[in-house]
């Protein structure tokens, strides 16, 4: 038997959202914050064209995609580092900054992968509890020690959907020592409508220790192809590029991402619809008597405590898969109007039960 690293025995498992089917055959997957829409025909065509070339390795530098992103955001291509989904870019960030004993600060609860990646990297997680479902940036700044190498600010936060506001973020960034990398995880940026939430891309240039993490998995609907990226000043982006496993972003993914940027107007219209549904779902939940934090992402958060798993089961019986965090609450993605209505009916029935 080979000897395995001891950390593997104690690491939390990543629990991906699963689809469920109701006894009468209905299935609505609201557990992974995906786009509820089928891929655009133009994107499917681009993938099909690229499929004829898969006997060759992909462009390791993803030149076309990097250039398309640079143009889209008005940044130099040197500021971009791509990865197989933003979770892989986050792993690359650990590879970039972390050594055994290094501390990584993040809010908790936040994105489930942070503790996992920290464990894998041999880093020590420093979890700062949310205050009222929102990042407590003052406490996070306090939690930084000389051993801290990186801080994640998930904005909007998964799973609560809450945001940190511009003034708070600036005050926080001003306090973080320059040798600590601050990662603004903006996986849900396209869904933000609150004008007082800083777009990381407007601040990173003046801050050598800030990196912005984005993804094609949510608003751009490419979760199944795995493309994410980081935008930061050149030293950070170059260091992260060095940590990429060669050819990590595959040929189909590169083609789909380029096609998605070309069809961005259509995709952002879909985002607008999801944002409208988000308001409708939250208002309806509040009318049912639930407390729902204001969400700027494509999901809502219900703090259910001990009733969380029971709630998830009640939703599953109606074919609605939600994402339960046992003892804490459930995160429910915004789906199609039909999926949302089914979820709302299940939530109402649960309250009345
Ligand atoms: N960051 C956050 C906050 C997320 O919620 C997710 C996906 N659940 C990711 C990053 C990773 O997404 P992907 O790897 O698909 O880009």
From TrEMBL:
Domain Aminotransferase class I/classII large: 29-344
UniProt EC number: 2.6.1.57
Cofactor annotation: pyridoxal 5'-phosphate
Keywords, comma-separated and alphabetical: Aminotransferase, Pyridoxal phosphate, Transferase
Coiled coil: none
The organism's place on the tree of life at top rank: Bacteria
Residues modified to N6-(pyridoxal phosphate)lysine: 218
GO molecular function: histidinol-phosphate transaminase activity
SUPFAM superfamilies linked: PLP-dependent transferases
Enzyme class: transferase
Keyword Transferase: yes
Reactions catalysed, as given in the entry: an aromatic L-alpha-amino acid + 2-oxoglutarate = an aromatic oxo-acid + L-glutamate
Annotated PROSITE patterns: AA_TRANSFER_CLASS_2
Gene3D superfamilies cross-referenced by the UniProt entry: Aspartate Aminotransferase, domain 1 (3.90.1150.10), Type I PLP-dependent aspartate aminotransferase-like (Major domain) (3.40.640.10)
Biological function: Aminotransferase that catalyzes the conversion of aromatic amino acids and 2-oxoglutarate into corresponding aromatic oxo acids and L-glutamate.
Recorded family membership: Belongs to the class-II pyridoxal-phosphate-dependent aminotransferase family.
HAMAP family, alphabetized: HisC_aminotrans_2 (MF_01023), Phe_aminotrans_2 (MF_01513)
Assembly behavior: Homodimer.
Protein name stated in the entry: Aromatic amino acid aminotransferase
Originating organism: Planomonospora corallina
Gene assigned in the entry: hisC
